[in-house]
Every structure is written in structure tokens, then in C-alpha cells.
Amino acid sequence: NAGVTQTPKFQVLKTGQSMTLQCAQDMNHNSMYWYRQDPGMGLRLIYYSASEGTTDKGEVPNGYNVSRLNKREFSLRLESAAPSQTSVYFCASTYSRQRSNQPQHFGDGTRLSIL
Amino acid sequence: QQQVKQSPQSLIVQKGGISIINCAYENTAFDYFPWYQQFPGKGPALLIAIRPDVSEKKEGRFTISFNKSAKQFSLHIMDSQPGDSATYFCAAGSSNTGKLIFGQGTTLQVKP
To answer: Are B46 and B38 in contact (CB under 8 A)?
Structure first.
């Protein structure tokens, strides 16, 4: 049982390049999330998907887009990468559609550097 | 706007000591308060959580204390061990949103 799998684990981009971060979960969870983690800032929600077919903005959505491809997969796209998007990105999932009092299960992150 | 404020940013404790991390929140609609533990190179994992209808919850060496009137909650790690060295995040959420707001994180180092 792999849980939440993120790819790639590391990536270096040049300013202006685009890329898609992939996330897949095998726990039959309904809700999925994308966070970014920066020193001294904790985890900040970028986008989330309460269920297949729905997405919504979090605290810091600017510069990102998401796609809930199916129940298992939730991708995060940077259309034109900026140095301010250098961060560690985490995907998480949880069973409940609209309740926060369920454990969120995290992947091991994608470390993204933008030069 | 930081709705959950966590302190201290870093903490060094001797083995066997008590580690205490504090969080304060602003939104009175929050009704779920989890703590997550993160080891280097890994994603956060749920450690313990509390709801505001109780003032304390204990699981092994880990205890959450909750003060609803002060809008504060804290994590106490008793008999701290070097294996507890990690980053700890508090969080808060309201039941009907499906979202959590995380604190800034506390890096704990337990010295042998």
C-alpha cells in the first residue's frame, strides 16, 4: 500500500518554464490537497479538491493551476515558473469530502528550485 | 493573514525533559485541532488531535492541552527522546470546510 505518491521528487527549472507535479493516492480517498512549505511559513494550501470533478482555491493559488484527473490523481501545474515558487510541494489526501476532522495523509514532497 | 500562530520556532530539550509547543488561533469557527509531526525528507503525519469539547487529550507521551476561552492549544511531549527530533505543526480546521490552516512549525531537537 503506497499511500500518496508524488513525482518527481526533485526538479530544477528556469524562470518562465512550465511543469506539472503529479500526485496519486491509492487509499480510495475523496479529497486531495496541494500545499507548499517554506521556512517559517508552515504549510500553505494552494488548491484542493473535495471530490472528483471539483477544485477550489486555497490560501496561495496565484501562479498555479490544478486538475483532478480522476479519483486517484490530482496534478499541480506551474505555467510560467517564477523564483518565488521555489519551495517544497506536498500533496495530501483524506477520505472525507467536506469534513476537516479526518487525518490528511501526505506524500514525501517535491523539492522544486526555480533559477 | 496568519490565522494560526505557533511558537517557538525552534526548541532544544535534553533527553527526558518536557517539550512544549504553543499555538493560538483567531477563528472561533475552528473545531478541530490536530498536530502533525514531520521528519526530514518526509511529509507530515498526524500525531494527535483534539476537539474543543475536551480540555486535554493524552496519547502515550504526547498530550494536547486546549483552552477554548483563550483560543490557545499546546502540545506537551513528556520524557522527550532523541527520536522525537522533528518539525511539529499545529493546525486548525472547521468541520464543514474540509480544509486545515497550519501554524508556522517548530523544529524540535532532543539532545541525548
So the answer is: no
Q: What is the pLDDT of residues B4-31, one digit of tens each?
A: 999 999 999 999 999 999 999 999 889 8
Per DSSP bridges, beta strands A10-13 and A110-114 are parallel
Specify whether the CB–CB gap between A100 and B99 falls below 8 A. Answer: yes
Hey, are the CB atoms on A42 and B102 less than 8 Å from each other?
Answer: yes
B51: three-class secondary structure by DSSP: coil
Q: How far is B64 from B28, CA to CA, in rounded Å?
A: 18
pLDDT tens column, A21-65: 999 999 999 999 999 999 888 999 999 998 888 999 999 999 999
Distance between B104 CA and the closest CA of chain A, angstroms: 4
Interface residue B96 vs chain A (CB under 8 A): yes
Cβ-based neighbours of B106, under 8 Å, separated by 6 or more: B6, B7, B8, B9, B10, B11, B21, B87, B88, B89
Cα–Cα distance measured from residue B110 to residue A9, given in angstroms and rounded to the nearest whole number: 28
A111 touches chain B (CB under 8 A): no
Q: Does B44 touch chain A (CB under 8 A)?
A: yes
Q: Over 80: is that where the pLDDT of B2 sits?
A: no
Q: Which of B85, B107, B87, B80 is nearest to B10 (CA)?
A: B107
C-alpha distances (whole Å) from B18 to each of A33, A114, B79, B103 are 33, 40, 6, 21
